[in-house]
Amino acid sequence: MSKDNFDNNPEEKEETSSVENQEETTNESEGNELSELEKKEIEYKELHDKYIRLFSEFDNFRKRTAKEKLDLMATAGSDIIKEMLPILDVFERAMATNEEAQDIEAVKEGFTLIHNKLIHNLTSKGVKPMDSLYEVFDVNKHEALTQIPAPSDDLKGKVVDVIEKGYLLNDKVIRFAKVVVGN
Length: 183
Fold this sequence. Notes:
Layout: H1 3-8, H2 10-75, H3 78-100, H4 104-124, E1 127-129, E2 142-148, E3 159-164, E4 167-169, E5 172-175, E6 177-182
Parallel strand pairs: 2-6
Antiparallel strand pairs: 1-4, 3-6, 4-5
Helix pairs in contact: 3-4
């Protein structure tokens, strides 16, 4: 067959063009599949990048919060200590004065003033002493050191002596009262 016959033969042209069309369709579908795969890879990379950034931000937040917490704990008592220092100064002046004092009543009055100043300072911060004497023994507020026979029937199961006072901070026990309970 000559080249002219090939060009002029319509059946052969159709076969050739249908084969070319199939190849183009196959290439297009492979191109679509490839582009879908590429799209998924791009989407994966974007999501992975967002995940890495979010994880890094969270890790930085966690570290910063831990550092702030340590700093806060280190300086938490500084306000209270600053308010206690004037009381310490008064106490030191009283001790110096007591070395030369002849009047015992003046010494007692000085200690009472210091005690009152300290109690006032603690009360302003929300600290209150517990009144435990003759109250019903409560394990949430008291620590029983011992039990003794109750002096009277109405004191059974109640606190008959306070060895060490208990204290509340904003109505929460910060030190249990050490008590003797009537049995």
